[in-house]
TrEMBL record:
Organism for this UniProt entry: Hypsizygus marmoreus (White beech mushroom)
GO biological process: heme biosynthetic process
GO cellular component, one term: mitochondrial inner membrane
Task of the protein: Catalyzes the ferrous insertion into protoporphyrin IX.
UniProt entry tagged with the keyword Lyase: yes
Bilayer disposition of the protein: Peripheral membrane protein
Biological classification of the source: Eukaryota, Fungi, Dikarya, Basidiomycota, Agaricomycotina
PROSITE patterns: FERROCHELATASE
Protein name per Swiss-Prot or TrEMBL: Ferrochelatase
Compartments in which it is found: Mitochondrion inner membrane
Amino acid sequence: MARSFASLHKSPPAGKSPTAIVMMNMGGPATVPETEEFLKNLFSDRDLIPIPFQRFLAPILARRRTPQIEKQYTDIGGGSPILRYTKIQGEGMAKLLDELHPETAPHKAYVAFRYVRPLTEETARQMKADGVKRAIAFTQYPQYSCSTTGSSLNELFRRGSAGDVGQNVEWSVIDRWGTHPGFIEAVSQNIEAALSKFSASDRKDVVLLFSAHSLPMSVVNRGDPYILEVSASVSAVMDRLGHSNPYRLVWQSQVGPSAWMGMQTGEALKGLARLGNKKVVLVPIAFTSDHIETLYELDLEYAEEARHLGIEVHRAASLNESPVFIRALADITAQHLRDYSAGSGPVSTQFGLRCPGCTNITCGQQKTWFARGGR
Ligand SMILES: C=CC1=C(C)c2cc3[nH]c(cc4nc(cc5[nH]c(cc1n2)c(C)c5CCC(=O)O)C(CCC(=O)O)=C4C)c(C)c3C=C
Ligand code: FES
Ligand SMILES: [Fe+2]
């Protein structure tokens, strides 16, 4: 497997194995022809979408959806930029960590995607080849959902417990960081930049419309923490902005016929126009790099529609290469390493609690395994 694909940072000096920071995310097709494989892997994920006869139905559902999603990736420039941004973020973070926490240097960032290369299995092989003995599973979703971070951890648990990463690797987990001051600062700065596009006299009336990927109500109703955690991020951003503007949190990207968390972003824009709120900043809050939901759904669909409704709308940029954000990633990890060496244990207190409605036995096994440091 291509060595440079999963690993991001320079090779460690001979004899010293790196502290691995595993950046977990879903990934996206880097090129348009990879869309069908991405969707097939996504529809095959029981932790995300449990469907009957999954093995049989997943490829059929993926094939049916491919033309529509291929068109969206074509329209945003021919693929998802998530791997490129994750590499930039990971390299920047690892470099800063060598300074912030030299005791555990060298640090090396690895990408583990759930639905496209580098998949977790490929990253595991690379870590084994590098002789990794200490690893941090670092979710790149700021807010925890069992459908996103939970799915990535379940996959890492399957690979890790099978010995694919190597023997006696010491694991710990960064499972959520949606209210970390560095993350909140980076988002807030991007909102301020978007607000500055409005005339000074209009600025205070602009509605901040925070938009996050929705969740099926079946997931919300089993006690998934994501809705609460996204709300906490919004609240922290508004505190940082000194409540300078009115705001709402709305939900986007519902798929299929089942009930999803609302209000839908598109409907909210129509409602605001109807009520005479004609100045809006759209704020992506639950994903750290651009993807079809920002570049297609927000920029091409909703913002266009809003302009037809007479709304002046600007989108806050995604975090992408933001140095404030990269510094936040390094700070989060450095604090985790400090807490760990002070005896805090491999997982957070909140990590251990399963959703009250959870019936997925892998969740329980995974949490026990990580709480024992991957043993
Ligand atoms: C925090 C972010 C996300 C949550 C929570 C989430 C939950 C979730 N998603 C689906 C179904 C689909 N999601 C799809 C694409 C997709 N999802 C996210 C993020 C979250 N999903 C992103 C960033 C993307 C797009 C990747 C990109 O490059 O833009 C898709 C495929 C696209 C499509 O067919 O529309 C599906 C399907 C479920 C069922 C779910 C919660 C259970
Ligand atoms: S679904 Fe949340 S812990 Fe299993
Ligand atoms: Fe999704």
